[in-house]
Amino acid sequence: MSLTSTVVVTFIKNNYRSKSATIVSLLLALIFSVILTILGMSFFILPQLDSAAPDIDKITNILGLIVYSTCLCCLGMNINTFTAKPLIIEKSGKTLEALMATSLTAKQIWIARSLAVFIPGFVISEVVSLISFLIINVFFIGPKIGFLISPWMVFNGFFVLQLMYFALNLLVHIVALTGNPISGNAIAQTTFPVIGSLMINLGVRYIWSTNSWIFALMNLICFVAIIFLVFIFQPLVTKENITISNK
Description:
The protein has about 250 residues and is mainly alpha-helical. It has one domain. Helix content is about 85%, strand content about 0%. The chain has 10 helices and no strands. Helix 6 (about 105-145) packs antiparallel against helix 7 and helix 7 (about 150-180) runs antiparallel to helix 8. The chain starts with a helix and ends with a helix.
């Protein structure tokens, strides 16, 4: 295992050291995901399935939105819980200073810290969303109109949001590492929910279906915009700036 991989694992362990924060974060993500699934089923999918002529496009769109929304809940809860507080502890405990005394560059530390938040959030969101997707399909949609799945639904529900989440992780950790971790967390608390809520509202109103390339394109544009900011601000990630921010 390389030094960078070891650091990623260490950061992940630091993030999940607080059992109470981990349990609360997971429970809230699951609760919100269940609520969103129930709402989507009750107000949109079940009425369509009970109708004489179910609209497959509408059902597919809402199913994709449920997957997208559950991902959003899990990813949002993860980045908000495991960015600021663990990083504050690492800075006060001189963990970052010790790492900067190694052969690792500031950019490698930044990437490792970002991946330590991204990887668990990605895994949790994929698992929860997949479970929700399978339960709805197998027990409700499948028996009436058959198993529903499409390439755009899968891409928009399971991948495009995660791309945006990865980019946001990089941006948040630029701010958190070189400045105040709480400021970095504030970016995550505003940007991610606003973009996600916008996409969900547009999907619910059938302006952009989650089963379409337009929905994917709009999300990818947001991803590119965040990545653009990352490239602009990444020169700030230096050992000198990280050291100054620790004081």
